[in-house]
Design goal:
Length: 157
């Protein structure tokens, strides 16, 4: 049986080409085929935000995104969010304020908030709450996550 046609896209800045079955979703491609396991599978239903990645800079739920649809696009996962020298200011803020407990939701929050701070460098608390409303956390009660985003904004994340 011939292999399916390849999808070509940039993944965390690197040109990537991989054969993809038509029904395969981006989350499976990233985690199972490309071994980028920082992106988490929570609900697999589009409700938790754990699987959030950036597609052309916009937060997207990789569990609901057909992998074929990223052909020609730029995909950034949590592995691509950090600068080469270490953690981003936002990631550091998560650590410093204790916004990570079990950590399962953290990659999705960081990816979502990275795009949000890029577009809203001086957000109000209400704007932050709205921006992360698609990401669920079962551990922290959200306050520490909001504080981390505020701290990163104050420090010029
Ligand atoms: S795993 Fe995609 S939204 Fe929950
Ligand atoms: S830190 Fe555990 S789900 Fe958010």
């Amino acid at each position: 049986m011939p292999s399916p046609p390849p999808v070509r896209f940039r993944l965390n800045g690197q040109p990537t080409e991989v054969a993809v079955e038509p029904a395969r979703v981006l989350l499976d491609l990233l985690r199972d085929d490309l071994r980028l396991t920082g992106t988490k599978r929570g609900c697999d239903l589009g409700t938790c935000g754990c699987c959030t990645v950036l597609v052309d800079g916009r937060p997207s739920l990789s569990c609901l995104t057909l992998a074929r649809l990223v052909d020609g696009r730029e995909v950034t996962t949590i592995e691509g969010v950090s600068p080469p020298q270490g953690l981003s200011p936002l990631q550091r803020a998560f650590v410093e304020v204790g916004a990570t407990q079990c950590g399962f939701c953290t990659p999705g929050f960081v990816v979502t908030a990275t795009a949000f701070l890029r577009d809203h460098p001086h957000p109000s608390r209400e704007e932050i709450v709205r921006a992360i409303s698609g990401n669920l956390c079962r551990c922290t009660g959200y306050l520490k996550i909001i504080e981390a985003i505020e701290r990163a904004a104050a420090g010029g994340a």
